[in-house]
Amino acid sequence: MYPITVRMEGKKVVVAGGGKVASFKIRPLLEAKADVTVVSNELSSSIRELVEAGCVHWIQGTYERNDFKEAFLIIAATDDKDLNIRIEQEASEYQLVNVITDPERGNCHFPAALKQGKLLIAVSTGGASPKLAKHIRNQLQEHYDHTYEPYLEFLNECRMLIKERYEAKAVRHQLLAEILEDEYRLSRQKQEQFKERIIRETVDLR
């Protein structure tokens, strides 16, 4: 499998199945602003709440091939393994398909993911052991904690600031390397001092 992150905003996603497993897959997609439709006779309480809130579309009934015709991503998450395989087989070769009941099938997998703001770390075992992937993800979470969310915002702001104000690549590299030190991640004061220093130095140079 080739690792890639995909911009899902506005992309049509169709989920076959309305149970607990399907609900786990839907919420991250909504966070990514995907356009999610669920095809199922019944819905779990959590998915029903999303439908009632207008966050998810619901096609009540059994699987029909036309339900998936325009989907960018298809998630086969019913409790019927044969139906999930059929959904995969009837999908276009240009569609992304994830088969919940069989990691060997489909052309995309969902890794165990750790997200802290702009920081995204994904762990996959290629379907060999989803539990191990989650275990590694949990271990990483102990190190890459909530402090990384504001820190990444700081790094992004500084990258743009440095790129705008310094032409010399060596200077840019030195400054960007400096703010990777933990003292900047752990101190908002140090972050502000660094940005003030950049502005002051470049004003002086001009």
Number of helices, counting only DSSP H or I runs of 4 residues or more: 8
Q: What's the β-strand tally?
A: 7
| Helix proportion range | 40-55%
Q: End-to-end span in angstroms?
A: 50 Å
> What integer is the average pLDDT?
94
Biggest sheet character? 5 strands, parallel
* Mass-distribution shape: elongated
Order of helices and strands: EHEHEEHEEEHHHHH
The radius of gyration over CA amounts to 22 Å
* Class by SSE composition: alpha/beta
Task: Please tell me about this protein's structure.
The protein is an alpha/beta fold. Helices cover 46% and strands 16% of the residues. The chain is built from eight helices and seven strands, in the order βαβαββαβββααααα. The N and C termini lie far apart (50 Å). The mean pLDDT is 94.
Topology:
Elements: E1 12-16, H1 20-31, E2 35-40, H2 45-52, E3 57-60, E4 73-76, H3 81-90, E5 96-99, E6 112-116, E7 119-123, H4 130-143, H5 148-165, H6 169-178, H7 182-186, H8 188-205
Parallel strand pairs: 1-2, 1-4, 2-3, 4-5
Antiparallel strand pairs: 6-7
Helix pairs in contact: 5-8
